Amino acid sequence: MRTPQEDRLAAYAHEAWSRWMEHLFSTAVTTTEGDVVLPAVYVQRWQRQMRTPYAALSTSEQASDLAEARRILA
């Protein structure tokens, strides 16, 4: 049985994922065949960020993660 707290957290997880998908698709280019292609500059940045521990991120990158943490706590 799931708890109301689990449901709230799951709803937040979905909202966070949805925000990310909107951002991701806003950076992409759609081909005439309907494929969605991410520009290399974004791919390179996101791959670097996902391999970097939080403590080693830039101040602005940490600020973005901190804002997300504050949304979770709210």
Could you please describe the fold and organization of this structure?
This protein is mainly alpha-helical. The chain has helices spanning 4-27, 40-50, 59-73, and strands at residues 29-30, 36-37. The two termini are 24 Å apart.
Widest sheet, order of strands: 1-2
Q: Helix count?
A: 3
**Backbone structural class:** mainly alpha
Report the sheet with the most strands, covering strand number, pairing sense and barrel closure.
Answer: 2 strands, antiparallel
Low-confidence stretches: none
H/E series, N to C?
HEEHH
Distance between the termini: 24 Å
Radius of gyration: 16 Å
Strand content: 5-15%
| Mean of all residue-level pLDDT scores | 95
Task: Give the overall shape, derived from the CA principal axes.
Answer: flat
Oligomer: single chain
Total DSSP E strands: 2
Helix percent band: 55-70%
Q: Layout of helices and strands, plus pairs?
A:
Elements: H1 4-27, E1 29-30, E2 36-37, H2 40-50, H3 59-73
Antiparallel strand pairs: 1-2
Give me a quick take on this structure:
The protein has 74 residues and is mostly helical.
What are the main properties of this structure?
flat, two-stranded antiparallel sheet, mainly alpha, 68% helix, 74 residues, 3 helices, single chain
